[in-house]
Amino acid sequence: EDQVTQSPEALRLQEGESSSLNCSYTVSGLRGLFWYRQDPGKGPEFLFTLYSAGEEKEKERLKATLTKKESFLHITAPKPEDSATYLCAVGTGNQFYFGTGTSLTVIP
Amino acid sequence: DGGITQSPKYLFRKEGQNVTLSCEQNLNHDAMYWYRQDPGQGLRLIYYSQIVNDFQKGDIAEGYSVSREKKESFPLTVTSAQKNPTAFYLCASSIVVAGGYEQYFGPGTRLTVT
User: Fold this and answer.
1) How far, in Å, CA of B25 to CA of A50, rounded?
2) What was the pLDDT predicted at B100?
3) pLDDT > 70 fraction of chain B, expressed in percent and rounded
4) Does B38 touch chain A if contact means CB atoms closer than 8 Å?
5) Which residues of A touch B31 (CB under 8 A)?
6) With 90 as the cut, is the pLDDT of residue B99 above it?
7) How many CB atoms lie within 10 A of CB B39?
8) Closest C-alpha among B63, B27, B25 to residue B44
9) Contact A35/A64 with Cβ under 8 angstroms?
């Protein structure tokens, strides 16, 4: 069964305290691993797509990496405005499978 | 500005009534999707459409219907047969890019049925 699991469910960081979010998957026919940011009451905002193991992408304080079975979203020196839920999804064929997200809170 | 619009942002209905949620995109994307989001659960696929006049059921299609008469539009009807319709509904579209594809979301419609 295709599955996407994110950990931890929730993460509280002090401003400036770097950390990583994990997304593991058991999906056949991977066509892309996607990271989104979602603020309360809003639609997910696209961040990155990773296509093959070893690939890395960066955007401001965020860096996403991909292996054959998991992806990490590294957050370097986070700020309070980085507080949000981060969603991971895997695309395969015509469908996308989503994890339940990691709720990140960055405390000033 | 290119993007996906959903309307209305909030929708209230009485139990037993059908309701239609609007989704429009001007990104020229071929594929469009409807998801449902509930607290503590990942996004679940309701329906998707790869081309005009064609659509497929997702994991939780029961109690929902869609149409795709135009490339830009993919409305979702929540029927009275849907047992738990109160949720946050998200429309998305996707495009094929080099090596894969990318999916983008609209702002969502929060439906409350009482």
Assistant:
1) 24
2) 75
3) 97
4) no
5) 94
6) no
7) 7
8) B63
9) yes
- pLDDT tens across A58-94, in order? 999 999 999 989 999 999 999 999 999 999 999 887 7
Cβ <8 Å between A91 and B103: yes
- A86: closest CA among A72, A76, A97? A72
pLDDT tens across B58-67, in order? 999 999 999 9
Which one-letter DSSP state was computed for residue A80? G
* Residue B87: both structure tokens together: 């949720």
Instruction: Give the pLDDT of residue B2.
Output: 66
Q: Enter the tokens of residue A40.
A: 């309360």
User: Is the dihedral angle over the CA atoms B66, A87, A1, B50 positive or is it negative?
Assistant: positive
Question: What is the greatest pairwise CA distance in chain B?
Answer: 46
A74 vs B73: CA distance, rounded Å: 36
DSSP A43: -
Candidates A101, A46, A106, A54; CA nearest to A75 is A106
DSSP string, B45-102: EEEEEEETTEEEE-TT-TTEEE--SBTTB--EEE-TT-S---EEEEEEEEEEETTEEE
Which residue of B100, B103, B108 is in closest CB contact with A51? B100
**Token pair listed for A9:** 């469910």
Q: Does A68 touch chain B (CB under 8 A)?
A: no
